[in-house]
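Hi U.,

Before I forget, here's the chain from the pilot set. I'm dumping it here mostly so it's searchable later in email.
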Amino acid sequence: MRTRSSSNLVGESSPNPTTSNPKRRNRRRSKQPFSLEESPVDTMADQRTMAELLRAPTEGYAEAIVVPPILAEHFELKHSLINMMTSDQFFGLEKDNPHDHIRWFNKITSTIKYKDVPNSAIKLMLFPFSLAGAARRWLEKEPPRSILTWEDLVSKFINEFFPPSRTTNLRNEISNFQQRFDESFHEAWDRYKDLLRACPHHGFTELHQLDTFYNALNPADQDSLNSAAGGNLLERRTQDVLTIIENKSKVRNSRNKSIVSQVKSSDVNSSSSSEIAKLTHAVNQQTSAPFAVNQQTSVWTTAMTRYSHTISREKKEKKKNHTSSSIKAVERKLCYCDGAQP
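Structure:
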């Protein structure tokens, strides 16, 4: 390490200072401000005791969310609002949907009004109380003072608990949607809307959504929609198509299941009915209890059958004996009457 004093010594010991290179001297002088020197502050002894030095630091507890200054006087969050937030908390589980939580949170906070208090500030203050479990730990791990606006908070929250892979899976479910075999029209429509609601950033236009749903229906429901549209449903405007679908989904008594439509469209004769009965009986046997239970049930049924036959046979014999005894009694009376005649 070169110090200022050593550089001066080198300059004094130069045998021919007049022949030295001036550019080289200037370059050495330019480096002098960067020479390492001990600061007077560094050389000062630390006056703190060992107990103070070993004490745990009390810094670094700044929150990730920065709430803007509130100009209103005597403003405070009521305990009822905090209790409302904790009544339906978001835990960050796999089944939890962050979009649903944001919708619920916006719906609650939109009813909260304070003079001179921005609604965004109320949201930033209340949102941590709506989290629990893994979601709360996520917010606690965010860098201090890294969330400045409500939009920043929503963006980070959605990206954390709704990764791109989940978006891809839901987009595939929407594109490949099909009405189930035993699903009614309104059940299929509700399930389709649930998929759209679960992924609001799916990117599909309204035209694409309605076309996908129509092509996913069974022929009977497609014919029903075409009839309601007065022809071909796809020749109507998207808003009209949506109204027709919503009106049809409200008629819940008309189930129009695919299996029912198939049965109604064909002539079912007695032989096919017997075949269906046989298949139903076979299915019931396949879905019955285990073999041991069936065996016990069979033994019990056999015993009860034998007991019933025995009782019936005894009743018949008793009735027969009673009839025979009655006939004999009548015969004795007749004999008695014959003997009494003159």
